[in-house]
Amino acid sequence: MEAHVSGLRRVLVLAFCVAGIWSAYIYQGFLQETLSTKRFGLDGKRFEHLSFLNLAQNVVCLIWSYIMIKLWSSGSTGGAPWWTFWSAGITNTIGPAMGIEALKYISYPAQVLAKSSKMIPVMLMGTLVYGIRYTFPEYLCTLLVAGGVSTFALLKTSSKTISKLAHPNAPLGYGLCFLNLAFDGFTNATQDSINSRYPKTSAWDIMLGMNLWGTIYNLIYMFGWPHAIGFEAVQFCKQHPEAAWDIFLYCLCGAVGQNFIFLTISRFGSLANTTITTTRKFVSIVVSSLLSGNPLSPKQWGCVVMVFSGLSYQIYLKWRKLQRLQKKRKPM
């Protein structure tokens, strides 16, 4: 009976995590698309300074992580000092800014698909630089994702979707997305290095350190000289309070979503988190197509299915690898 209750409780917690991640990040994606395509006010102006979203997100997450540390931290020491995140903070500032700026040039579904192909630069660098040999199923996953993204990029986008973009330019948009992935790769590698040197570093410590440096770098870039873009973004928000409210909700969704991601990883592991976030991306594309008026052709839907089939197969391979490792540990 106790095992049954424990199992039921675990299922309910998992459902809670799925609902939290999906609702936070799907709504954040909707707001991101709204801010990049909507014309605000009677003058019909666009919010051109999309990289300002990064600064706003950094500030909100910095405050959020500080509050969480004060509420939940046990006062233990041994975590990474705040200054160790300075280099990861640079790439974590530049990379996401490029990903957001890409929405001026390509549609939201195209951006989500492009950013889902993270495995491509990882395997490419692993093979060419480090001489890593991957298995055939791993290459098959990469082929499905690369084929789906590239075919989607080559297919003609509907005129309705193009009319919403500020400056339609597919090569530039996809280029920014892949640069975002490259910077993300360096950020993740640096975070892994910090975690190995300071194993007692908590998720909140990482969130605080990363967003502290992100706030510093973005403040310098956006307000470091007269007539910098930050002043224009603030002026736009003053003239269009609706945009300011959307930006605040966008940041709040990011902070809440981080909470659910940390909870999922701590209770169910990184593989469960990867599965939830991957399915969330697919749902985001469906929501964008239905609610935001970004119709996809049958061929484009085929590309979407192709990409997520590759991602799903990759998750299955990771699960099998994890199962094998657990079997090897049992006799010991």
TrEMBL record:
Statement: the UniProt record of this protein carries the keyword Transmembrane: yes
One cellular-component annotation, GO: Golgi membrane
Name of this protein: UAA transporter
Lineage of the species this protein comes from: Eukaryota, Viridiplantae, Streptophyta, Embryophyta, Tracheophyta
Database matches in InterPro entries: EmrE-like (IPR037185), SCL35B1-4/HUT1 (IPR013657)
Localization (cell): Endoplasmic reticulum membrane
Keywords for the protein's UniProt record, in alphabetical order: Antiport, Endoplasmic reticulum, Membrane, Transmembrane, Transmembrane helix, Transport
Family recorded in the similarity comment: Belongs to the nucleotide-sugar transporter family. SLC35B subfamily. Belongs to the nucleotide-sugar transporter family. UDP-galactose:UMP antiporter (TC 2.A.7.11) subfamily.
Main location: endoplasmic reticulum
A GO molecular-function descriptor: UDP-galactose transmembrane transporter activity
Pfam family, one: UAA
TM annotation in the entry: 12-31, 52-69, 81-100, 136-155, 247-265
Membrane topology, as annotated: Multi-pass membrane protein
